[in-house]
Write a structure and sequence with these properties.
By secondary structure, the protein is mainly alpha-helical. The protein contains 43 helices and ten strands.
Length: about 1000
């Protein structure tokens, strides 16, 4: 600072400072004027240019002026000014540091002599960092167990650490050291600090000589890829020295480890270094801080999870007894790669993938600014690389580097990752780590957030060499890298699988078939050879279809792997693709609408029921695009569509074409054709509801209502088709009115995917009609309806079950309204009145339906309610049903319908309240279970808490039954416990972390519901 500042130059200085990049040129001008008055000198052109070339010229100027003032006080100002004027390298390094790091500027102000760490020539003190930091705390680096002797070793350690950190930052910020070198040096500096911290600990623990203690670096420290400010992850291993008791030695080692951690993390007037985190040790924070080598081995051989072995990929001895540390690696390393062959490996890998995805999907408000955990962040890169190492490193020892960039290069050279992808990923990783370093250097604080203020973004952009539009250019570059990382992360596991089987052109190395099978196994495919055949069939060839499939499959294979049954998902996808492969819209839809492809993968990999429906009507894949397309359609809309189909196929009297001599039309069999169309409609609507259910778009009530509506429309259309056929054959109108009464779950609007349609048939002869002829015609219609719906067809069967009619199977299939009235007046049992509680005349002649409803209302809702004798009879019947109707050998607690706290328990409580009180409480006059419980609460017949317990148990049991049907394609009332894949699939579809969680939740709900049943239904307690 030697140039004088003449008055004639003053007016141009502010403009020059602004052009150099100072954001507050006027303030900078004032600071320079104050400095000139105090020292009599102004910065020369070279120094001003250097300040203007920094990331934040204003910050750099502040730091420089404070450093000069402090250096003058300590008598080193002259040397500093001389170096700034005559050593361009020193000037560049010093100003670069001051323009990025306010924290290192503060350090230089406290220790101005440390500017020499940034001089031309050797940038760091001679000798390794370990020796330097040990000497700083007064320990002998050559000693077997160095012990600190400095008067204030914590302070000395921090000053020496930051002195070396300053030298490294100077080389980093002018580009002499790249990101990988910087990260490695930071890890080595952390290891040296741990060694010095251990020397301080030995000074606190006089009996330290009774044990050996090794510090194993984990995470970024172990992988030699540490940040400027980061928790340092460690594991401790110890052993007693010869002749020393092990228990006492371990206590001493624990004291040493604790003291070492404090030495690094304790706050002083020079701040702290960083937290030492030992949470990656066996059993985590619940486990002992220090273990013997034998204890470590026993834990990892018996109890460790796959994620713990993933963490051990980066294990490296960093401090303490080097021999013990080396023996630790010798013992643990083989266990890591042997564990990758264990039975739970696939499940654990899938869980880790889902956990990472869940972390990414449950973001905080700052998630978009996250360099580490945000989408396309550092964690994406690291997790992808580590997962591929675990999968393929067991057979290929060249893939076992603990350093991310080295491992990524090895994976590329081995053909496990494409060269272009590896290069893009490495470039993005270097960029993100560089930004992370710059963000942390500013205040020397542990953070992974990109600043959200203009000044912070400008500083980052300029530090990266972006000068035209630092904020805009940086933001665009960051987002581009993040998108690229996320894209590659999503496909990294899957793209090479295609090259293994599809014989694609290109120079990139391909996975061998063996490696491809290994990767598919790791993703959860039970039949990797079969999966490879499907991939080959879908992607081979030069057609446009194959080209699009090669684009789709890498991501879809991952989505299949996230589903409960990846093999079924891939097989279903191939089958649907084969069926629609020549349809132009299908692959275009999957390619352009990511939601369709993702939902399709989940549905095909989760539900055999939905997959069967889709295979029978592949065009229904178009429904997957929007939530609105998956909303169950209104019943009236479906009814209009179904009855229109029946009208189109109606022939014979009153219809086009007239009858043929054989009673059929020349165009074919109209009834069968009409019902075929209606069953196709039913198939489509069932798929709509099933997918909405699988995706969590509808609740239990909505599913039951939608399935009931579909069944109602189907039966009504079949009834009309049957009437048309009988009329055509008889060549006269039907001599009677007909109605179909829905019973059971059908009448309760609570149908499940596998439910039969319980019905009763009622007819009422027209005035003047012969009753016998009317009866024969009605019976013929009912039988024809059942036949039409039982014909072999690609849709799931709709079984018509009329066995709840009076006299059951022994009674007539169809009765007149008068016959029903006579029967219920003379012979009806209490259980039949109970069955009528769920009777809903939904289909057929409107007047007849109303008359039937008027007939049964006094039977099911008797005036004054049922008497005590009837109540006792119902209770006995319920108790007998519990003991007799459960299948032999079935555990009662697992039966969702008849088990304690199951569906029957809840429904019988509601029905008993209806039988006793519905005559006086209009709200109880409903066929729906949950509505009846709500009405009972409103009428103060049932405690609201008890009703809530019953409703929750009923809804959970209903959801479980529905999920079992969706997963298996077959109905069951039993909670799945045997078949692992089915059990896991049902658990996943229901949204539970594990099968144990599902069983625990169900048993808890059922237990509480049964307690209410015992009290309310049986009157116990």
């Amino acid at each position: 600072m030697t140039e004088s500042w003449t008055p004639d130059r003053r007016p141009s200085l502010a403009g020059r400072l602004a052009r150099l990049g100072f954001t507050d040129a006027a303030r900078a001008e004032r600071l320079l004027a104050d400095a000139e008055r105090e020292t009599g000198a102004m910065p020369g052109t070279g120094l001003l240019d250097a300040l203007g070339g920094t990331a934040d010229p204003d910050l750099a100027l502040d730091g420089l002026l404070r450093l000069l003032a402090s250096a003058d006080e300590r008598g080193v100002g002259g040397d500093l000014r001389g170096a700034l004027a005559g050593e361009p390298g020193t000037r560049e390094r010093l100003t670069a540091v001051l323009g990025v790091s306010a924290a290192l500027g503060d350090h230089l102000a406290r220790h101005p002599e440390h500017w020499r760490m940034l001089r031309d020539g050797p940038a760091v003190p001679a000798g390794p960092a370990r020796d330097d930091l040990l000497a700083a705390v007064g320990a002998d680096p050559a000693a077997q167990d160095p012990v600190a002797a400095a008067p204030d070793p914590l302070l000395a350690l921090r000053v020496a650490y930051r002195r070396r950190l300053l030298a490294l930052a100077g080389r980093d910020l002018i580009g002499v050291a790249d990101v990988a070198e910087v990260a490695a040096e930071l890890a080595d500096l952390a290891a040296a600090a741990l060694e010095a911290g251990l020397a301080i600990a030995r000074a606190e623990v006089p009996e330290h000589g009774t044990c050996r203690l090794a510090v194993i670096g984990m995470g970024k420290c172990g992988g030699r890829e540490l940040n400027y400010v980061s928790d340092v992850d460690v594991i401790f291993v110890a052993e007693a020295r010869a002749g020393e008791p092990e228990v006492a030695a371990l206590r001493t080692a624990t004291r040493l480890a604790s003291a070492m951690m404090r030495a690094c993390s304790a706050s002083t007037r020079e701040g702290d270094l960083w937290e030492v985190d030992a949470a990656l040790r066996p059993e985590g924070k619940a486990g002992p801080l220090v273990r013997t080598l034998a204890s470590h081995r026993a834990y990892y051989e018996r109890w460790a999870k796959t994620w713990e072995f993933q963490a051990l990929l980066k294990a490296r001895p960093v401090a303490g007894d080097a021999g013990l540390g080396a023996r630790y690696l010798d013992v643990i390393t083989p266990i890591v790669w042997k564990a990758a062959e264990g039975e739970s490996f696939v499940e654990d890998v899938q869980h880790m993938r889902r956990r990472v995805e869940a972390d990414l999907n449950q973001r905080t408000a700052d998630s978009e600014r996250q360099l580490k955990l945000g989408p396309g962040g550092l964690r994406d890169v690291e997790f992808s690389v580590q997962l591929l190492q675990l999968v393929h490193g067991r057979a290929d020892e060249t893939l076992r580097s603990p350093t991310t960039l080295v491992a990524l290069s090895d994976l590329s050279q081995g053909g496990y990752v494409g060269r272009d992808d590896a290069a893009a990923l490495a470039s993005a990783y270097r960029f993100l780590r560089r930004v992370e370093h710059l963000v942390q250097l500013h205040r020397l604080r542990r953070t992974h957030l990109v600043p959200d203020d203009e000044d912070g973004l400008r500083r980052l952009g300029r530090a990266l060499g972006l000068r035209t539009d630092p904020v805009g250019e940086f933001t665009a570059l960051w987002r581009r890298h993040a998108r690229e990382v996320r894209r590659i992360h999503e496909k990294l596991f899957y793209r090479p699988l295609l090259r293994a089987v599809a014989r694609l052109p290109g120079v990139e190395a391909r996975l061998t078939p063996e490696a491809a099978r290994t990767r598919l196994e790791a993703l959860g495919y039970a039949d990797p050879a079969g999966a490879l055949r499907h991939i080959e069939a879908l992607t081979s060839g030069v057609s446009r279809r194959a080209a699009i499939q090669r684009t789709l499959l890498p991501v879809m294979l991952g989505w299949f792997a996230d589903a409960p049954d990846p093999d079924a998902g891939l097989l279903g996808f191939r089958q649907v693709s084969d069926a629609l492969g020549t349809t132009p819209w299908y692959l275009r839809l999957l390619r352009d609408e990511v939601t369709v492809a993702e939902r399709m993968a989940w549905v095909l990999g989760s539900s055999r029921y939905a997959t069967d429906l889709l295979l029978r009507a592949p065009e229904a894949v178009a429904l997957l695009g929007a939530d609105g397309d998956l909303t169950p359609r209104p019943c009236e809309v479906l009814r209009s569509e179904a009855l229109a189909a029946v009208r189109r196929h109606k022939k014979g009297p009153g219809g086009p074409g007239g009858p043929s001599p054989q009673g059929e039309t020349a165009g074919g069999r109209p009834a069968e054709e009409a019902v075929g169309v209606v069953r196709g409609l039913r198939r489509r609507e069932l798929f709509r509801v099933a997918v909405a259910d699988l995706l969590g778009l509808v609740d239990v009530r909505a599913v039951g209502e939608a399935l009931t509506c579909i069944a109602t429309v189907t039966v009504e259309a079949a009834l009309q088709a049957a009437v048309n056929k009988i009329e055509m054959e008889a060549r006269e109108p039907l001599p009677t009115r007909m109605a179909v009464v829905a019973m059971g779950r059908f009448g309760g609007h609570e149908l499940g995917y596998g439910s039969d349609a319980d019905v009763m048939f009622v007819h009422d002869p027209l005035p003047g009609a012969d009753e016998r002829a009317a009866g024969r015609a009605a019976h013929a219609v009912a039988e024809e309806l059942r036949r039409l719906l039982a014909l072999p067809a690609p849709d799931p069967p709709l079984e018509i079950d009329p066995n709840l009619r009076p006299e059951g199977r022994q009674g007539p299939l169809v009765r007149t309204l008068a016959s029903y009235a006579a029967y219920y007046a003379r012979w009806s049992e209490p259980w039949e009145a109970q069955a009528l509680l769920r009777a809903d005349p939904l289909i057929g002649d409107a007047g007849l339906r109303d008359r039937f409803r008027a007939l049964i209302d006094p039977v099911r809702w008797p005036g004054g309610g049922i008497g005590e004798d009837a109540v006792r009879q119902i209770r006995r019947l319920k108790a007998r049903m519990e003991s007799e109707r459960l299948p032999r050998g079935v555990e009662r607690r697992l039966h969702t319908k008849l088990g304690p706290g199951g569906l029957a328990d809840v429904e019988w409580v509601a029905q008993l309240l209806q039988l006793k009180h519905a005559h006086d409480v209009p709200g109880l006059r409903t066929t729906r279970t949950l509505d009846a419980l709500d009405a009972a609460v409103e009428a103060r017949l049932l405690d609201a808490g008890d009703a809530g317990v019953l409703a929750e148990a009923w809804c959970l049991a209903t959801r479980i039954r529905g999920s079992i049907m969706l997963v298996r394609g077959r109905a069951s009332d039993l909670l799945p416990t045997d078949h692992h894949r089915e059990r896991s699939a049902v658990t996943r579809v229901l949204g539970y972390p594990g099968t144990g969680d599902l069983l625990e939740d169900y048993h808890g709900h059922a237990r509480r519901a049964r307690a209410v049943v015992d009290r309310v239904f049986y009157g116990a307690g």
